[in-house]
Design brief:
274 residues, Rossmann fold, 7-stranded mixed sheet, two-stranded antiparallel ribbon, 11 helices, 9 strands, transferase, Methyltransf_Superfamily, S-adenosylmethionine-dependent methyltransferase activity, SAM-dependent methyltransferase
Length: 274
């Protein structure tokens, strides 16, 4: 996993969510809507902690973990700068596949918004989700992010030189067969895994979770540019809020999931059937 750590040591993940605010807004809306009123949350694969900080503002207790030590340090520093450090139970550089630091049934709810992007074997994905299941209390809510194979196919077709080796039909064919993407160019987003949308809910349910919903994190508006957003802002607060309400509503439309690069699974810990 060192190549993943190396990538995130140089990538501005905090800035990505600033540059792509729709994903953050949609995810946070659904997370807050489905969380208990209070409790101790695990943010597993938290990156620089943007979601954690928003939830800390809402007075949840947070334990934050990420694979990349630098991002954990950024999150801790941000918490101090924003006077939210006391809401955190700890900041840890940990692998999502091994959460033995925490006991069984420990957290009231959990976010896992990154680890499954970079676990390329079925065994590793099962380990991460099994550990998530173990540390969450019975009936605890989980919020798990996935990347869509359908959307990445579209990205590859639109910008082939940006996503080598998906700049050739052979490269795309191999990707569609496996869901695995390893960038040909050094320093680019790599070591990734993309799910078939129809496999997400069965995967989570086989690992002990009951599905509440699967939403598209960029809803129908992921391709809108700044000029287009500015148009609706100029229409005034009332119309802009109404547009955002429709964007949030459409994020739950199952027929639109394929247009979203990121998907958010919302489920609850139940009893494993296998």
């Amino acid at each position: 996993m060192q190549h993943i750590i190396d990538y995130y040591n140089h990538f501005d993940e905090w800035g990505r969510l600033d540059r792509e605010p729709l994903e953050f807004m949609v995810n946070l809306h659904h997370i807050v809507k489905n969380l208990p009123e209070n409790g101790h949350l695990l943010d597993n694969g938290a990156g620089p902690g943007k979601y954690s900080l928003e939830l800390a503002r809402r007075e949840y207790k947070i334990t934050l973990i990420d694979l990349t030590p630098r991002l954990v340090e950024v999150a801790e520093q941000k918490a101090k700068e924003l006077n939210l450090w006391n809401q955190f139970e700890g900041f840890y550089a940990l692998d999502a596949r091994d959460l033995t630091r925490f006991p069984d049934d420990h957290f009231d709810a959990a976010l896992m918004l990154g680890p499954l992007y970079h676990l390329q074997t079925a065994e590793d994905r099962a380990k991460a989700v099994s550990e998530l299941y173990r540390v969450v209390k019975p009936n605890g809510m989980v919020f798990v992010a996935f990347m869509s194979k359908s959307r990445f196919l579209l990205n590859s077709l639109l910008h082939p030189e940006h996503w080598k080796p998906n700049h050739t039909a052979h490269g795309i064919e191999k990707f569609m067969e496996s869901g695995i993407f390893n960038h040909s160019d050094p320093g680019r987003f790599t070591g990734a895994y993309y799910f078939d949308i129809q496999e997400i809910e069965p995967f989570m349910e086989a690992n002990g979770f009951s599905t509440l919903k699967l939403i598209g994190s960029s809803s129908i508006a992921g391709s809108m540019n700044q000029e287009q957003w500015d148009y609706w802002r100029r229409r005034g607060d009332f119309e802009y809020r109404r547009i955002l309400e429709w964007v949030l509503k459409e994020s739950e439309n199952p027929y639109m999931l394929g247009v979203s690069s990121h998907l958010l699974y919302i489920g609850q810990k139940t009893r494993k059937t296998g």
